[in-house]
Amino acid sequence: VQLQASGGGLVQPGGSLRLSCAASGRTFSRYVMGWFRQAPGKEREFVAAITWSGLTTYYADSVKGRATISRDNAKNTVSLQMNSLKPEDTAVYYCAVNGGGSLYSERAYAYWGQGTLVTVSS
To answer: What are the residues facing 88 on neighbouring strands?
Structure first.
C-alpha cells in the first residue's frame, strides 16, 4: 500500500496550491481520507477529511473557507485545494487513510503518504 503526495512548493502569501495524493496497492474508495500537516517544531495537525462518498467534508478552523478537499474514487486519488495561503500554512502536508475512529485524530489513520512540503513566503 502506497500513498504518494505531490503538488507542494514555494508560493507567495495569497497564492494557491493544489495538493494531490494517489493511492496504490489497494482501493480506498470505502474509506475516509484526510490531510494533515506538520509545521517546523510543531506537532502534526488535522487539516481536512472527506468521507468515502465525497459528500461530507471536514476542515480545521484554520483552513476553513480557504481549503477544499475532494476525491476521485475511480482514480483512487484525493486532493486538497488551498487558496489565500498564509505563511502559517507552511508545513509538510500528509495524506492519509482513516482506519477507523475519529477523523480528526492522526491515531485513527492507518496509512500515510510521505508528505509534500508547502512553503508560503514572499
So the answer is: none
